[in-house]
Amino acid sequence: MDIIASTGAKGGVGKSTFAILFALKEYSKDKKVVICDCDVECPNDHLILDVDLNEKSSEAIYQEYPTLDEDKCIKCGRCSEVCRENAIFWVKDRHPKFFHDLCTGCGACWVACPNDAIKKKKMEAGKSYINKIDDDLWLVTGKSKAGITETGPIANETKKRALSLAERKKADLVVIDTSPGTHCNVIQALLGCDKAFAVTEPTPLGAHDLSLILELLKKIGVPAEIVLNKSDVGNRSLIDDIGKRFKVDVGVEIPYSERLVKAYCEKQLQKVVDLL
Amino acid sequence: MKIAIPAAGKDLDSMTDSRFGRCPYFVILDVSEDKIDSYDAIENTATGAMRGAGVTASQIVVDQGVEVVISDNIGPRAFNALSQSGIKIFIVESMVSVKEAFEKFQKKELKEARDPTGPGFSR
Lengths: 276, 123
Hints:
By secondary structure, chain A is of the alpha/beta class.
């Protein structure tokens, strides 16, 4: 089973469009495919595929947060010291205060507490959904709850559920669609992928953000290939230069096409898989 | 009593900074009765934080043993952290020097903050 990602630090370059096109193209070659929407703060693959998220299949995703046992707390401040997210505020001779909206649930505080005064509390942080789109085609969508600002663990759990579905269904391919950016939630989606398509466009911003994502992929050891969307407009030498610098090829080029735009608007991307 | 004022520079003539969590310096005044006995400036190491600068900045101020903060603005987390530590927060209009801010405080011209003044500067 191959696990590939469609990513790219810049928003609006066509990551989701490419992910769906690629998945549908492989599906048309009789492969069993699971699409996994890890853009959990704003999932939209179901909109492109024109399906309603299947509420019957929804399953809560929990995160663990610290909660204080005030009787056991010795007010030492060790938890505040180890927190890398500035999420624990502590004043000498007082109990620490937790800011849950900054917490990633990493667990450093409860490991560091010398008196076992910090308990883990489970809270619902999001949901995952499974849609069967066709005989051998599935969509797994992750969605964070409104107000949750740290969504890495939700992307990670969504990916896990998609991989476990793919195992059960003996899928040939999992296509993971990530959020834009290079933050926790993107990293969680990319870890363990066999390959990542870095989608971009031939503009200065597209080139700049391409260098960010290629740097990240290099760091986490995921092989990359550049997908250049709207390859015949703008200034493509910007992208070629970045590709040369990172020794990554532009493997896929998608020229601007009214057919594609039309199919996208009509939610009929399966009609234009020949463009890949 | 110690007073912390977010500032653009390190002395009494520096202008106050409009951000609490992301100001470059805190000028810490040591005052008795109605005059400044001494002052010191400390760097705010929270300026570059991705998120939660207000919490870290509050921690820095609290560790200095400050009882009063005079600031243009105060974000929700910093307000929460400071007020729960018993620190009083007074709001000064922008574009005054640290010294002028203190004088306004001394003349009781400043209002004590009962709520955060805005949503903070991250995200």
